[in-house]
């Protein structure tokens, strides 16, 4: 611990031996704190075999392993579940990640090849691609929330309350077909003795519960805790209760942007309901962003209800770190990149957004680095460019609403606009210096207008 200099907020979290939720803002050094926590535990009576560390992606797991001096168990939920099932001597095999899509396609082929079925189906389903997307998302959310088939009856009851007859019949038709596909998917999995990702975690949870789990973990450390789903929480709680261990959970509610995959921010916000004798610590220093940017980004995201109030402190200062760039022509983005000169990443909402500005040949020629905002979480660069911030239905914020059936599966489904605000926060806080927000003077997104109205003194305007 002598080699790493921790600030006073990190040290308080590291030395806490209660169940702890560590709320760590963007660039606050959460990975460093996790490393410090593990080092502290090992120097205070815990053995390596008694510490379990969980992160959400292979990349974050590998990053943590590189920073650790010790051979600690660091797993994704996927790898942890496989290990538990191997210990329980239960053979398991993960299904093809495309299996559900294949089942959907086969189901649709059968429907559309029959004139009678096709006519009935297309009376309510006007867009096949949208139906596919809805089905995939519905089933994934259904399983990640650990619902059983009684949930379908609840949804039927909700649909039958819809007064508009066409809307009611349309939703009933959608649900009946989705349930048919769900059942076919289960049959397919059972016939090949395979599990999907959610099944894997559910089966691992059962294995822990039935005393076949032998690892005697005494401390569970979880990174990116704001991205926890109910099936993941159930697995954590099973190990926690069985081993009577302690937990150290790290995350940032400001950066919860994966509701569409089943992540449930309420788990993070209600931490004390799940883990007794617990406390909440906050990291208040940021080592990435200038103070002026943090002032804007923090105030912006805390307009959401229920976000945990926090104010980050930075020793870095830039007078106007937010640059609102008005492009007369999308081709002028290259001019801006030449002005920036130092390292940068371009961010956008969707994979295809960059093609409004560059074609494939230009991307290679000019060495364009582009990521979606979701993929950029956890990353940083000297400067950040955020594109396509116009008053478009699929910009930021998006005006696309969840399907009614999806809303019936999601906690706080009406708070989707709050997630849009968090998504923009993530984009703003990837930078070490300046963030360039690309828009059109006549079609600014509502978030751009809000920044101008509320935080003008932190903004420089550029026209190209």
- What is the CATH superfamily label of the largest domain? P-loop containing nucleotide triphosphate hydrolases
- β-strand number: 14
Strand order of the largest sheet: 3-2-6-7-1-8
Shape: globular
- Largest β-sheet summary: 6 strands, parallel
Would you tell me the overall average pLDDT? Answer: 93
CATH architecture of the largest domain: 3-Layer(aba) Sandwich
Strand-residue proportion: 5-15%
Q: What is the C-alpha radius of gyration, as a whole number of Å?
A: 24 Å
- Which residues form runs of ≥5 with pLDDT under 50? none
Percentage of helical residues? 40-55%
Count of separate DSSP helical elements? 20
| Domains (count) | 3
Q: Could you name the CATH topology of the largest domain? A: Rossmann fold
- Distance, first to last CA: 49 Å
CATH level 1 class label of the largest domain? Alpha Beta
Query: Structural class per helix/strand content?
Result: alpha/beta
The oligomeric state of the chains shown is single chain
């Amino acid at each position: 611990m002598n080699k790493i200099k921790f600030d006073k907020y990190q040290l308080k979290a590291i030395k806490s031996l209660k169940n702890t939720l560590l709320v760590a803002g963007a660039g606050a050094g959460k990975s460093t704190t996790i490393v410090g926590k593990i080092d502290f535990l090992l120097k205070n009576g815990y053995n390596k075999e008694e510490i379990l560390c969980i992160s959400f992606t292979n990349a974050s797991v590998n990053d943590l392993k590189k920073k650790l001096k010790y051979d600690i168990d660091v797993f994704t939920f996927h790898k942890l579940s496989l290990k538990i099932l191997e210990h329980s001597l239960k053979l398991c095999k993960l299904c093809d990640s495309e299996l559900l899509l294949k089942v959907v396609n086969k189901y649709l082929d059968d429907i559309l090849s029959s004139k009678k079925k096709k006519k009935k189906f297309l009376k309510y389903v006007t867009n096949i691609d949208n139906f596919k997307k809805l089905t995939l998302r519905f089933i994934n959310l259904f399983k990640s929330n650990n619902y059983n088939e009684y949930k379908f009856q609840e949804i039927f009851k909700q649909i039958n309350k819809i007064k508009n007859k066409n809307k009611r019949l349309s939703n009933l038709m959608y649900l009946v077909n989705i349930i048919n596909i769900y059942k076919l998917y289960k049959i397919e999995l059972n016939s090949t003795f395979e599990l999907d990702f959610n099944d894997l975690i559910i089966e691992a949870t059962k294995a822990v519960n039935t005393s076949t789990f032998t690892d005697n973990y005494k401390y569970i450390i979880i990174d990116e805790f704001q991205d926890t789903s109910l099936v993941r929480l159930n697995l954590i709680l099973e190990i926690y209760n069985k081993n009577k261990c302690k937990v150290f959970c790290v995350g940032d509610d400001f950066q919860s942007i994966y509701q569409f995959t089943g992540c449930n921010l309420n788990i993070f916000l209600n931490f004390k309901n799940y883990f007794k004798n617990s406390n909440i610590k906050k990291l208040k220093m940021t080592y990435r962003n200038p103070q002026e940017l943090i002032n804007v980004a923090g105030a912006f995201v805390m307009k959401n209800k229920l976000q945990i109030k926090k104010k980050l402190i930075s020793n870095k200062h830039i007078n106007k770190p937010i640059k609102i760039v008005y492009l007369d022509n999308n081709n002028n983005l290259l001019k801006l990149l030449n002005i920036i000169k130092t390292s940068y990443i371009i961010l956008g909402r969707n994979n295809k957004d960059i093609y409004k500005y560059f074609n494939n040949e230009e991307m290679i020629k000019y060495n364009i680095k582009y990521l979606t905002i979701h993929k950029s979480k956890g990353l940083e660069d000297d400067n950040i460019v955020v594109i396509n911030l116009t008053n478009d239905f699929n910009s930021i914020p998006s005006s696309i609403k969840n399907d009614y059936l999806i809303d019936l599966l999601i906690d706080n489904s009406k708070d989707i606009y709050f997630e849009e605000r968090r998504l923009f926060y993530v984009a703003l806080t990837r930078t070490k210096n300046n963030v360039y927000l690309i828009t059109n003077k006549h079609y600014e997104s509502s978030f751009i207008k809000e920044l101008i109205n509320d935080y003008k003194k932190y903004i420089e305007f550029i026209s190209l």
